[in-house]
Amino acid sequence: MYKVIVTDSISDSGLKALYDHPNFTVDKKSGLSPEELKEIIKDYDALIVRSQTQVTEDLLNAAEKLRVVARAGVGVDNIDINAATRKGILVINAPGANTISAAEHTMAMMLSLARRIPHAHMSTSAGNWDRNAFKGVELYEKTLGVIGMGKIGAEVAKRAQRFGMKILGYDPYLTEERANQMNITKATLYDIAREADFITVHTPLTKDTKGLINDDYLAKTKKGVRIINCARGGIIDEDALVRGLNSGQVAGAAIDVFETEPASNQELLSHPHAIVTPHLGASTVEAQEKVAQEVSEEIIDIFETDSIHHAINMPQVSGETQKKLQPFIDLGEQIGILAIQLLKNAPDKIDIHYYGNLAKEDNNLLTRTMIKGILSYHLSDSVNMVNALHLLNDQGVSFNVMKNPESKGFASYMELTLHHGDHHSTIGATVLNGYGARIVKMNEYRVDVRPERYLLYIEHHDVPGMIGRVGSILGNHDINIGTMQVGRAEAGGDANMVLTLDKKVNDEVAKELVEMDGLKAVQFLEIPNGHLPAYNMQ
Ligand SMILES: NC(=O)c1ccc[n+]([C@@H]2O[C@H](COP(=O)([O-])OP(=O)(O)OC[C@H]3O[C@@H](n4cnc5c(N)ncnc54)[C@H](O)[C@@H]3O)[C@@H](O)[C@H]2O)c1
Ligand SMILES: O=C(O)[C@H](O)COP(=O)(O)O
User: Fold this and answer.
1) Within 6 Å (CB) of ligand 1, which residues are found?
2) Topology adopted by domain 452-526
3) CA 217–ligand 1 middle distance (angstroms)
4) Same-fold call for 2-97+286-305 versus 317-448
5) Ligand 2 centre and the CA of 354: distance in Å?
């Protein structure tokens, strides 16, 4: 049974899939202090949060079996992603599920600013009837600058166009073609400052966007500009905004998100030309239902089928790429496990080569499976696809990935070489159409071996009788040979043998083999998730 804890206010109906699932239990515990949460987090496999719970390194360190942190929303700035990655904890979110609600909130804020609705409401409900104090402006034929043309920015632009606004969009990823398709003008930040009557920001908070709208920027804006932030606190420097509002450079500001939350900048909160809401962009029945539903379904998929759709700290690959890589994924881990056993030492350098069709794909996922295979030999369960590259980096092991779209005799071929000083081990592998996974190279030798659970790797001199002697020793110990591959560099020179066995070779057998004349190296190799001979299968 997997235990899920939900620590922010999240829609019960959206969590239905988890509540109904026989393999999951859900505990809803909002309002816990950081200490209280730290105390109980060790019991949980998954944590679901919104923006309120701070998922700190300290909390993650106390999480003994946590596999997933799910953000029921978009922004993950309340989660220490690096700490989660180091611990191998997957972080997912629900991008897109609250886009419409955030875009509608932005429109509501813009209209409220234009017509001063909150101020007019307060005055009227206090008994006044002041029709002159609240003269507004129209949106029609005004210019709106949208900084961040992602999902929400694009929906805001679409809605504002219906109000007759001209849209200037700035986003480093906005192409001329997409701007044309959306019938907006691709602009720079300074075009927006110069021309916009309203500016709305829709970027994440990053080192580039922190303080993006500051004193310098405001000095370049049109006098009387109106500014909206329904994205993240900190993109607009709050003190600079207050100075702009005081001087009249900024006619009004509508702010949903703050540098610190709950918001504490009283000058801004009580400014007569500011409209403020307590981070309500995603607070609608529909958005909350959708975000909760998306993360619930994804948590079930992750635990039940290992499929991940919206990972923050894992590479995202398209469904098509995933389908192409799938046959190589298990094999990637297996060659990692074999290469590290052959090397007999921790590697100081790793080379990965992809050839043919594999070289044309985004194979970050495949690289991670190999690294996981290599590291799991020494680190066992503490390594997974999330933290594999981090752990490798922590160990100071360098790795190179080389891609060559030319075929290496197979439509797709991957080769892994581990180095330890002057020593190295190499495993090459492919998937043969209709025949499945094959190890086709071990060190310098060409082989053709199915990656079965128990393998015996022997390097020897090419002299008569070797095969018979190895076979007799194994037979005397009741070890059945599945397949045997023999290869040699040249007659009478160096040769190798790779055998698949039906069971493990114990120390006694290994000793007898090692003592055989003419053998240069004997190694029993085991692939924990390799195929077992048919009669051993459950
Ligand atoms: N107020 C709320 O309750 C609420 C609700 C939902 C989302 N949000 C926030 O809104 C923001 C946007 O969400 P989204 O779903 O549209 O995300 P998104 O990823 O679809 O879009 C973000 C866009 O910002 C752009 N960007 C990044 N750096 C930039 C920069 N320096 N200058 C200009 N553009 C830059 C990106 O290229 C991207 O297109 C996020 O910060 C999210 O957390 C807030
Ligand atoms: O990034 C988001 O999804 C929004 O800021 C919504 O945050 P919330 O889930 O805390 O309302």
Assistant:
1) 74-75, 95, 98-99, 102, 147-153, 170-173, 202-204, 206, 208-209, 230-232, 256-257, 279, 281-282
2) Alpha-Beta Plaits (3.30.70)
3) 19
4) no
5) 41
* DSSP-assigned states of every residue in 406-419: S-SSSSEEEEEEEE
Residue 9 CA to ligand 1 center (angstroms) comes to: 22
* Cβ neighbourhood burial of 432 (10 Å; 0-12, 13-18, 19+): middle
- CA-based nearest residue to 226, from 133, 354, 236, 234: 236
Query: Which one of 11, 53, 98, 99 would you pick to mutate in the ligand 2 pocket, going by the greatest count of ligand atoms within 8 A of its CB?
Result: 98
Q: Which CATH architecture has domain 317-448?
A: 2-Layer Sandwich (3.30)
ipTM score of the complex?
0.99
Domain ranges of the chain: 2-97+286-305, 99-276, 317-448, 452-526
Catalytic-labelled residue, pool 86, 105, 119, 232: 232
Which residue's CA is minimally distant from atom 2 of ligand 2? Answer: 74
Nearest to 509 by CA among 461, 459, 475: 475
Which atom of ligand 1 is the closest one to the Cα of 235? 41
Q: Identify whether the C-beta of residue 92 lies closer than 8 Å to the C-beta of residue 71.
A: yes
How far is ligand 1, taken at its centre, from the CA of residue 204, in Å? 4
Please tell me the pTM assigned to this model.
0.83
Q: How far is CA 503 from the centre of its chain?
A: 39
| Probe target for ligand 1 pocket from 71, 76, 100, 152, with the most ligand atoms within 8 Å of CB | 152
Q: Output the tens digit of pLDDT for each of the chain's 538 residues.
A: 999 999 999 999 999 999 999 999 999 999 999 999 999 999 999 999 999 999 999 999 999 999 999 999 999 999 999 999 989 999 999 999 999 999 999 999 999 999 999 999 999 999 999 999 999 999 999 999 999 999 999 999 999 999 999 999 999 889 999 999 999 999 999 999 999 999 999 999 988 999 999 999 999 999 999 999 999 999 999 999 999 999 999 999 999 999 999 999 999 999 999 999 999 999 999 999 999 999 999 999 999 987 888 999 988 777 788 788 888 998 999 999 999 999 998 899 999 999 999 999 888 999 999 999 999 887 767 788 899 998 898 888 999 999 999 988 899 999 999 999 999 999 999 999 888 999 999 998 999 999 999 999 999 988 888 899 999 999 999 999 999 988 877 788 888 999 999 988 888 888 898 888 888 889 999 998 665 443 322 2
Give the domain 99-276 fold: Rossmann fold (3.40.50)
Task: Annotate 134-149 with DSSP letters as a single string.
Answer: T-----TT-EEEEE--
Sign of the CA dihedral with 511 first, then 516, 521, and 526 last: negative
Q: Which tokens hold the place of 236?
A: 């607009």
CA distance 480 to 475: 7
| 159 counts as catalytic | no
